[in-house]
Design a protein that fits this description.
Mean pLDDT: 91
Shape: globular
Low-confidence stretches: 258-269
Strand content: 15-25%
Number of strands: 10
Order of helices and strands: EHHHEHHHEEEHEHEEHHEE
Oligomer: single chain
Radius of gyration: 18 Å
Structural class: alpha/beta
Number of domains: 1
């Protein structure tokens, strides 16, 4: 089983590991493509004004340009500890048991716009790049889709895709009976379903944490759904082929317009 997660634009800075070594990342067959994207990011960072426009940085984000310029020599952290934001706050990877972190090492992949799919414990530096960023002479979506999609499809077993649409396009996996794309929806008293934003991310983080702590390598989506029911989650077939709905009851949500439990962070989709 493989859990595919999106990254976050917000990240922990600094680190405790040595500087980046591309060949140490999971899926080493992607090293050449990673190098191309990395070179384009570093080259862009040499022109701060162009980088600010390409990365869509506001005044408080201008320092991200210097972070990208130093990305090759910066200290690293395990990928699952690098990202912050709503999903990763709910996942709270640093407080996982040692057994759950070892399980994550084998069963979690994060879809980075800079490095492509990386393992949960792969050492990565801080950086700023999203799936919609524009790099000179390089188009991120087709570049990663062509390289990363086939690599992910070669992974054996169930693929549980928790990525947002933009990041799923960086590493598309064709629909099949072993691929489940997870949507988070709310259901009202009349059975009507609606997609969520903030609680989409939070629910995905909580769900991922529960799977990791369970330590179970599920063979198919039906087996995962049966476990989910006992773990306090409702997971069932969605409206489209290959989609599964992770349901949040409307009664569990704050009133419309409430900011309870929300936090300010860059969107991860």
């Amino acid at each position: 089983m493989l859990l595919l997660l999106p990254p976050s634009e917000t990240k922990v800075q600094g680190g405790t590991g040595r500087s980046l070594l591309l060949r140490q990342l999971s899926f080493p067959e992607l090293t050449a493509v990673r190098s191309r994207v990395l070179n384009a990011v570093v080259e862009l960072s040499r022109d701060p004004e162009a980088a600010i426009r390409a990365l869509k940085l506001g005044p408080k984000g201008h320092g991200e340009v210097a972070i990208n310029r130093a990305v090759r020599r910066s200290a690293t952290l395990p990928a699952i500890d690098r990202y912050t934001g709503v999903l990763y706050d709910a996942l709270d990877a640093r407080s996982l048991s040692p057994e759950a972190r070892r399980f994550a090492e084998d069963h979690v992949v994060i879809q980075s716009a800079l490095f492509g799919p990386v393992g949960a414990l792969d050492p990565v530096p801080g950086y700023r790049l999203s799936h919609s960023s524009r790099l000179p002479g390089l188009r991120l979506t087709p570049t990663w889709a062509e390289a990363a999609g086939p690599v992910l499809e070669r992974v054996d077993g169930l693929i549980v895709d928790l990525r947002s649409e933009g990041y799923a396009e960086l590493g598309p996996v064709r629909a099949s009976d072993r691929v489940a794309y997870i949507r988070v929806v709310a259901v009202d008293d009349e059975g009507r379903r609606r997609a969520l934003n903030h609680f989409n991310k939070k629910t995905k983080g909580l769900f991922t944490r529960a799977v990791l702590e369970s330590g179970q390598d599920f063979g198919d989506i039906e087996e995962l759904a049966a476990w989910a029911a006992g773990a306090g989650f409702s997971l069932g077939p969605g409206s489209a082929a290959g989609e599964w709905d992770l349901v949040v009851p409307e009664v569990a949500l704050p009133p419309t317009g409430s900011t309870t439990g929300a936090r300010t962070s860059s969107p991860i989709g």
